[in-house]
Design goal:
There is one protein chain. With about 550 residues, the protein is an alpha+beta fold. Helix content is about 55%, strand content about 20%. The strands form 4 sheets. It has a 5-stranded antiparallel sheet with strand order 2-1-5-4-3. Bound molecules: adenosine-5'-diphosphate. The site of adenosine-5'-diphosphate (ADP) has 22 residues, from helix 8 and helix 10.
Length: about 550
């Protein structure tokens, strides 16, 4: 039996170890490995997103270039030559009428120092427009005489290299405290001889660029099957702004503010426009930190689990160690308790055998001592037997309807003499209204004896024992009170554990096995009741066994 006991104990410890430490540790390791891989992957994903953003922005630039070239090609064919004289104005007006995307058109001929410029006739009622446009034309007029020759030379070289024979020039101005973008296309009109300096110029209308041209580009880029769009559930959004001003000049409808993830400053057709991109509602860093936060939480939880496991194991191991120590104390105590009464019995029996005693009272006294010591032995052996039965789960109770008052009285009767002889004042308080209760007579009697015996053992000068039996709240209470050494509050729960004996040095001089109270508790619980203690060190203790009057409670708890 002891082999089986040790095996289950070991298996339990191993199981606890496995569940509490090995599993969380393995999980933690697994998670860390996975985590590392994730972080690597995550970094790669972040870089890929940034690469994709740059790629999309470059596509936007390229598309803008193509669109601008497509817009300028038909204008070139229709543009007047400096030799068209009075027809120039009419031709320019026609071009502007047919192409509302331009704000104005101009023809410059350096040889004749001629600059003919026309504004978009469709908007001649718009005063603000006319004001701004006139400002731009004036700027152009001041710029052309000094710059036209080099510009024409550059255009001729481009033509020789079979590049597009036109150029764009753009930038930002402030219109009514707001950044506005201007952009002009310049070219050499058809039929101008190589030695002549003449330039044709058309300027994009800012409203057109802001409301039509760039929104279309942005929409086109974002809806194309680019790599970004397959990334995940996050929606990319785009805007265009001026340098050193993050207010969007053009933005997608779902642009939600905040700083962009990637930017590209256009350098070709639309110089100084800054295209910016980000994810709607989140940032790449946010995605990263959300991922990190999640990792920290999982790591924290696993660590807590491991700490919990270690604590559990520590508790389990220290409990086992404590139990082992208590068991060895128990063996020493029990051997001592067995040896003393046996030595006394032998001593008195040998004296009697010699037949040298003359006084009859001496005989009586010696017989009494032998009887008392053998009773003590019986009580101890009964305790040990009960304990081993309980531990093996073989303890059985014989419940019978019993008159508790009679049981308590008769149990105390056989003890009364010993109590009084030890100099104790003894009070017995048994109420007359106790109904019959279903109990195991022997178990209850043994519990009472254990409590009375403890009161005897753990009293010093104040020698008093009081036993009461009374009804209270559907229970019958059996109470044993003393004025002895008492029990400190932090030990009051532990005294009911098996083998436990108080740390007080006084207790160690008193014989005991540490089994009595654990048996009393087991018996009380098997009856559906409980044993309670109230105690003050140096003042005394009161132990109460509360037994329920309702037998249903008893069976339910005993079965549990
Ligand atoms: P034992 O008396 O054999 O040591 P018990 O299980 O009966 O074992 O009691 C456990 C411990 O509780 C005792 O060692 C003692 O320290 C304490 N104890 C029990 N009854 C009393 C009491 N009436 N007064 C003071 N301490 C007590």
């Amino acid at each position: 039996m002891s082999k089986k006991w040790r095996l289950t104990d070991r298996t339990r410890t191993l199981l606890t170890l496995e569940l509490a430490i090995v599993l969380p540790a393995a999980a933690l390791m697994g998670f860390s490995i996975w985590n590392l891989k994730q972080i690597q992957r995550d970094k790669a994903v972040e870089a890929a997103i940034q690469r994709d953003f740059q790629y999309v922005l470059k596509i936007a630039e390229k598309k803008s270039w193509h669109q601008a070239n497509d817009l300028i090609t038909p204008v070139l064919k229709e543009f007047p030559s400096p030799d068209d004289g009075p027809q120039i104005k009419g031709k320019l007006d026609r071009i502007l009428l047919e192409h509302p995307e331009y704000a104005y058109a101009a023809l410059y001929d350096k040889t004749n120092n001629l600059l003919v410029s026309r504004m978009q006739p469709g908007r001649d009622q718009d005063q603000a427009f006319c004001g701004f446009t006139q400002e731009d034309i004036n700027m152009l007029a001041s710029w052309l005489p000094s710059e036209a020759s080099t510009t024409v030379k550059r255009l001729r070289k481009m033509k020789e290299k079979e590049e597009e024979p036109w150029g764009f020039y753009g930038g930002w101005t402030l219109h009514a405290n707001q950044h506005a973008y201007w952009n002009v296309a310049y070219f050499i009109p058809a039929g101008v001889s190589p030695d002549r300096v003449a330039l044709g110029i058309v300027a994009f209308d800012e409203d057109y660029l802001r409301k039509t041209f760039f929104p279309a580009i942005v929409k086109d880029v974002l809806s194309s099957k680019s790599t970004v769009l397959r990334a995940d559930a996050n929606l990319p959004v785009m805007m265009i702004h001026a340098p050193r001003d993050s207010t969007p000049w053009v933005a997608t409808a779902d642009w939600d503010g905040g700083s962009p993830e990637e930017e590209l400053r256009f350098s070709d057709v639309f110089q100084d426009l800054i295209f910016a991109m980000k994810y709607r509602g989140t940032t790449i860093a946010d995605i990263g930190s959300r991922f990190l936060r999640y990792n920290y939480i999982v790591l924290g939880a696993l660590s807590a689990l491991m700490v919990g496991g270690i604590w559990l194991t520590y508790r389990n191991v220290s409990k086992e160690m404590n139990l082992a120590r208590l068991k060895s104390d128990f063996v020493a105590n029990v051997s001592h308790e067995l040896r003393t009464p046996l030595a006394l019995i032998r001593l008195y029996a040998e004296t009697l055998e010699l037949g040298r005693l003359t006084a009859k009272e001496k005989y009586q006294e010696y017989f009494r001592i032998i009887r008392e010591e053998s009773e003590r032995l019986t009580a101890l052996i009964n305790n040990i037997l009960d304990f081993s039965r309980i531990e093996a789960g073989r303890k059985e109770y014989e419940f019978k309807e019993t008159n508790l008052a009679d049981l308590v009285r008769s149990t105390l009767d056989s003890y009364r003499f010993q109590i009084e002889q030890n100099g104790f004042s003894f009070e017995e308080n048994i109420c007359s209204d106790i109904p019959p209760v279903t109990v195991d007579r022997e178990a209850i009697a043994r519990s009472l004896l254990n409590l009375v015996n403890n009161a005897l053992k753990y009293s010093k000068d104040q020698k008093y024992i009081g036993v009461s039996l009374y009804r209270a709240n559907g229970h019958v209470n059996l109470e044993v009170q003393d004025h002895g050494i008492g029990i400190s509050p932090n030990e009051q729960e532990k005294i009911f554990e098996k083998f436990y004996r108080c740390g007080d040095p006084l207790v160690h001089n008193i014989k005991g096995s540490g089994l009595g109270l654990s048996l009393v508790r087991h018996i009380a619980r098997a009856h559906g009741g409980e044993v309670l203690v109230e105690s003050t060190p140096e003042k005394g203790s009161k132990f109460t066994i509360a037994l329920p009057l309702d037998p249903a409670l008893r069976t339910a708890q005993a079965a549990a």
